[in-house]
Structures are given as C-alpha cells and as structure tokens.
Amino acid sequence: MPKGTKILMVDDDKMLIDMYKERLELAGYQVEISRDGEEGLAKVHQVKPDVVLLDIMMPKVNGYEALASIKSDPATKDIPVIILSALMRDVNKAKAVEAGADDYIIKSEAMPVDVIKKVETVLKKYNKPVPSATVLNEKSAPKGPQDVPISQLEEQAKEDNPTPIIEVEPAAVPKVAPMPEPKNNPPPPNPMPQAVPEVTNFVPPASNIPPPAQTNPESEKKASPVVIFLLVLIVILIIASDAFFYIRYLAG
Q1: What is the DSSP track for 7-37?
Q2: What span, in angstroms and rounded, lies between the C-alpha atoms of 244 and 237?
Q3: pLDDT per residue over 2-38, tens digit each?
Q4: 37-47 and 63-72 are packed helices; what angle lies between their axes, rounded to 10 degrees?
Q5: Minimal CB count within 10 Å: which of 11, 156, 162, 184?
Q6: Which DSSP state fits 50?
Q7: Is 53 exposed, middle or buried (0-12, 13-18, 19+ CB in 10 A)?
Q8: What is the pLDDT averaged over residues 241-247?
Q9: Degrees, nearest 5: CA angle 192-198-203
Q10: What does the alpha-carbon distance between residue 9 and residue 201 come to, in Å, rounded to a whole number?
C-alpha cells in the first residue's frame, strides 16, 4: 500500500467525519481531518494531501472561500478537491466546479463506497497512487451502517429506537343521571272575579263553624248576648280573612 496516499477531510459535522474517516482508513487511506475552513487551509499546506474532501457550509471560512484559496496558491493549486456537501441545488454544483472542484458529491445521495470510488477516479486522473485496499467494492466489502447515506442512517435510528408510547387509561367517571327537563306548564287561567259577599246577615258554612256544644233546650234559651257577640265576631274575622287572600290572588 502506498504510504503517501493522504486525504484531508474538512467538515464541521463530527458524526460524518468519524464515519468517513473509519471507512477511508479501511480502504487504505491516511485521513487527516479539520473542523472548519480556516484550519483546513492550514493543513493543506502542512499535510500536502493527495485529495481534499471539502464541505461548503462551515464556520470561519466556507467551502467556496477555501476552494478559491487552494486554487489561487501555486503551492496547492494542483491538489484535487472534491466537494462533499448537503447543498443539492445545481447552482451550487456549477459554482464549485467553476471554482476548480474536480467533483461534487451530495451527502444524502452518496454512500461511503461511492465517495471512495470518486476519490479513486480523481487519483487516477492526476496519476496519483491508489491504495490496493480500494478493490473492496459493494460485492466484497462487508455491509454495515457506514455503507448507507446519512439520511437513511437517521431514518433507521428512528425505526430501531422508536419513542415508547404510554397509553394512559382515563379515570372512571361516575355516571350521573340526566336531570329531567323542566316542563313548561302553562300558568293556570285567571278565574273570573266574583263578588265579595256582604258581611251582614251572612250565614257561614258549616265546615268553618265549630259544631255547637250539645246543650239542652233550657241552655239554648238562656244563651247570653256575650256568646252571640263572640260567634258573630269569629264569623266576621273568617270572612274578612278569606276576602283578603282572594283580593291578593286577584292582584297577583
């Protein structure tokens, strides 16, 4: 295996860097990594890699600026650069190729084995050594999570670790009998007004007068005027009370 086959990967996505670094090293490459464009430019001069895998969206210095700096420097302009980005628009690809990129790979559409093939093609184009371990292809290489796109890895992680759904039974609610609807009974018709009988010479009903005490004929003859007055007064009070409540009923 040639010892000089080096790849510099410049990307701020730690998960992606770790995955590709492991897969590229298995393919026989020496991999250097950088977390941002500024650090990547410094390592381009230090490491002098055979290929640079460059992301676009990065802090400090983005991929377009880093690519322009690499291609404008006589010491690094001949280093091939492959853009590995999540940007999918054709205008991004056209801008990168115009600035000097040798290829443009969309992260969500490529597997690590595809990236390795692109790297191998670029190395052959520049007559650079290709590690013998790159003969591993889709048929001979062991399949694993490193051989699927990142988008599929995220979907697979959701399927393997679904969020548990806890069913909570609702508390028992006692049944309450419905209240009967109030019946709209029509008000009783107003009775026809009746004339109030005169108090004088009125004989009260038998039900309203207490039964007279059983007396002998002699005691009836001897009834005092006081008793008669009291009886008449009671009758008058009863009639007045009935008349009062009747008048209030008519007024209401």
Answers
A1: EEEE-S-HHHHHHHHHHHHHTT-EEEEESSH
A2: 10
A3: 466 899 999 999 999 999 999 999 999 999 999 999 9
A4: 30
A5: 184
A6: S
A7: buried
A8: 79
A9: 105
A10: 129
Q: Name the token pair of 67.
A: 């690519």
Q: What is the pLDDT of residue 169?
A: 40
231-239 average pLDDT score: 87
In terms of C-beta density within 10 A (0-12 exposed, 13-18 middle, 19 or more buried), how is residue 61 classed? middle
DSSP assignment letter at 207: G
Give pLDDT tens digits for 179-206: 555 556 555 555 555 555 554 554 555 5
The residue type of 138 is E
CA distances (Å), 151 to each of 51, 88, 144, 182, 201, in order?
25, 14, 15, 65, 113
Task: State the angle between helix axes of 150-160 and 14-26 in degrees (0 to 180), rounded to the nearest 10.
Answer: 110
What residues contact residue 172 under an 8 Å CB cut-off, 6+ apart? none
| Phi, psi dihedrals of residue 134, rounded to the nearest 5° | -75, 0
What 189-193 contacts at long range (C-beta under 8 Å, 24+ apart), as own/partner pairs, is 190/250, 193/250
